[in-house]
Amino acid sequence: MQARRIAVMASGKGSNLRVILDAVRQGRCPVEVGLVLSDKADAGALAIARAAQVPRVCHLDPRDYADRAAFDAACADRIERAGCRWVVLAGYMRILSSSFVRRFAGRIVNIHPSLLPAFPGAHAVEDALAYGVKVSGCTVHLVDEVLDGGPILAQAVVPVRDDDDRASLHARIQREEHRLYPATLARMVTVGFDLDGRVVRWRDGA
Ligand code: GRF
């Protein structure tokens, strides 16, 4: 297993994957993207990964497997065979089975478009608007068995405007995601962190 090698799992357009790959290429994020894996054949993330010549790019179809655990085990095997230490979720829209989470305990990272613990789940931006919060943002966190509930690595705040709709707020949140995710991955593999219960303590004390 390579200490700085990551597998990125993505189901969607892949803008977070794109900025991670850009940051790696520009020397701002010293990780190595060893594998990009998607559950969707038409995910933009797959095309981005191929264009960037990621060494292993693969689509696995959940319908080819008996259940969630079997699909996740196939993904986990690919990740281990690729020698990846970290699993980076970037718009991966499937809930991970407990067996997958346990297999990579403390090594799975996700980005979520709200200030957790507010608005977990798949409709975070809509939920924040409907609730009427005046600030939202994004959270990079470790993944445990509670949906969007793992220890928080980093957060960024985005003000909510009175005339925001889902698209406008999500676009501004994504601008922050694109800054925060590569920067947090870089700190993760350089500075490192310890866990004090569910509290992340960065080893540089910042
Ligand atoms: C992001 O907003 C992220 O917070 C959420 O899914 C979205 C993925 O966007 N988990 P993209 O596919 O990286 O553009």
Describe this entry's structure for a reader:
With 206 residues, this protein is an alpha/beta fold. It folds into 2 domains: 1-104, 3-Layer(aba) Sandwich (Rossmann fold), CATH 3.40.50.170; 110-201, Rossmann fold (3-Layer(aba) Sandwich), CATH 3.40.50. It has 6 helices and 9 strands, in the order E-H-E-H-E-H-E-H-E-H-E-E-H-E-E. The strands form 2 sheets. It has a 7-stranded mixed sheet with strand order 3-2-1-4-5-6-7, sandwiched between helices. A two-stranded antiparallel sheet has the order 8-9. Helix 2 (44-51) links the parallel strand 2 (32-38) and strand 3. Helix 1 (15-25) packs parallel to helix 6. The longest helix has 25 residues, at 166-190. It starts with a strand and ends with a strand. It binds 5-O-phosphono-beta-D-ribofuranosylamine (GRF). The site of 5-O-phosphono-beta-D-ribofuranosylamine has 14 residues, from helix 1, strand 5 and helix 6.
What is this structure, in a nutshell?
The protein has helices at residues 15-25, 44-51, 68-81, 98-103, 124-131, 166-190; strands at residues 2-9, 32-38, 57-59, 84-89, 108-112, 135-142, 152-159, 193-196, 199-202.
